[in-house]
Specification:
Mutm (Fpg) Protein, Chain: A, domain 2, TIM Barrel, eleven-stranded mixed sheet, 23 strands, PLipase_C_PInositol-sp_X_dom, PLC-like phosphodiesterase
Length: 420
């Protein structure tokens, strides 16, 4: 087994019955364990003792043999016990067990420093380009109602909870109802008006002034309403100081305590949006299985938004397209990265419901069922971390806390990726 604990220090590895030899590596944070005896004692546990530079101590305990979930999904989360908190309390730990791959040849115990999910951006330098941050987002952020056809997020993960848990891109779809803007997904009202959404964002930014977030706004049509643009501007103006409305991709230092608008609608009259529409693509191709690009005042914005699949049989194909869209962001040599936005969501009634595509179905751990996109992407992201790579992109998920049968969620994995 290999231990990879970037920016952490291994103190010792203990077993209930045996002494474990640990070999260092030329790569910082990597250690190899001699577990040649595992076939003789497969039920044994090993305890890995670690500390961070901030004075925190933790113990990660894992069986010598991987769990059933790990054998099926390729990964699993591992419990971490904090035995000594750092004086500042800034960091905590998270751990994952990954099965051996052909390239690695051995199982990996991955242990990461986990910053506070509600304030992780505050720990990044002001000069950080937004496109170089690993960010989790939610597709149809407010789609809590409508059953299996319309629901894309768990009701327990309301907007404020999403932001607290590390979500930094929100996808809002609005419809004009009378003189109000109401969140909708298709024909289903999500029972939330736009001023309440803006008030929630304001409250979060007031409490977490080192953070930022991006909000995409799109009109849920048909029918197209001629006053949509004016009504969005009317409601947003009340919170105007919270918003960055320039059509460019800023650095973190420019937009801490503010939200960035990404407008997927057009102004109807020239007198509207005199301060700008925020990041504003000239077009947005509908459900194309490739990455499209636009220039945002000198920054190349790359978007993958293929969602209209035929059935759940295309889960592997959707997963492949997401991964291919993210591959260019892994280049560590990029000094001025593009901004990559990739939707992990997909659906089509009746054979590719959002919940089926994201979570899969059946009991994959028992060999009956299909793994969803979320579980597959979790494994891929963890593999990238094990390889010392960071995804410099924003990925939008349905049911971001549902990754199979593990306790881990995708926002936590993406957040931790910024600190390897």
């Amino acid at each position: 087994m290999e231990i990879y604990a970037p920016k952490l220090h291994l103190i010792e590895v203990q077993s209930e019955k045996r002494r474990i030899n640990v070999a260092g590596s030329s790569q910082p944070g990597r250690y190899r364990l001699d577990l040649a005896w595992e076939d003789d004692d497969p039920g044994s546990l090993i305890a890995v003792h670690l500390r961070d530079d901030d004075g925190g101590f933790a113990v990660v305990t894992t069986p010598v043999r991987p769990s059933r979930h790990c054998n099926v999904h390729g990964w699993d989360s591992v419990a971490v016990k904090i035995v000594g908190q750092s004086p500042t309390g800034k960091l905590r730990f998270c751990a994952y067990r990954l099965l051996a791959t052909q390239t690695q040849g051995r199982d990996t115990l991955l242990v990461l420093s986990q910053p506070p999910s509600s304030d992780f951006m505050a720990l990044l330098p002001d000069s950080t380009a937004l496109g170089s941050v690993a960010m989790a987002g939610t597709h149809e952020t407010l789609a809590f109602f409508g059953g299996p056809i319309s629901q894309c997020q768990q009701p327990a993960t309301g907007l404020y909870e999403q932001l607290e848990s590390g979500i930094r891109f929100i996808d809002v779809r609005l419809k004009v109802v009378g003189t109000q803007l109401i969140a909708y997904h298709g024909p289903q009202s999500q029972r939330l008006d736009f001023p309440t959404i803006l008030s929630t964002i304001h409250r979060f930014l007031q409490s977490h002034s080192g953070e930022t977030l991006i909000m995409s706004i799109k009109e849920e049509i048909p029918p197209f309403h001629p006053r949509f643009s004016a009504l969005v501007e009317r409601d947003l103006t009340v919170f105007n100081d919270d918003w960055f409305l320039e059509n460019r991709v800023p650095t973190l230092g420019e937009i801490r305590g503010k939200a960035i608008l990404l407008s997927r609608f057009e102004r109807v009259e020239e007198k509207e949006w005199l301060n700008g529409l925020g990041m504003h693509p000239a077009s947005w191709p509908d459900s194309k299985p490739y990455v499209f690009e636009w220039d945002c005042s000198g920054t190349r914005v790359r978007v993958q938004d293929w969602y209209r699949v035929g059935s759940f049989i295309q889960i592997p194909e959707k997963y492949r397209i997401v991964v291919e869209s993210l591959d260019p962001s892994l280049d560590a040599q990029l000094k001025d990265p593009s901004f990559t936005l990739s939707f992990a969501s997909a659906s089509n009634f009746p054979l590719a419901l959002p919940t089926t595509m994201a979570k899969g179905f059946g009991w994959p751990s028992w060999g009956v069922g299909v793994r969803g996109i979320n579980s597959r992407l979790s494994y891929w992201l963890l593999e990238r971390i094990c390889a010392g790579q960071k995804v410099k992109a924003c990925i939008l998920f349905d049911f971001y806390r549902q990754t199979g049968e593990s306790d881990a969620d995708l926002a936590s994995i993406m957040t931790a990726m910024n600190f390897i």
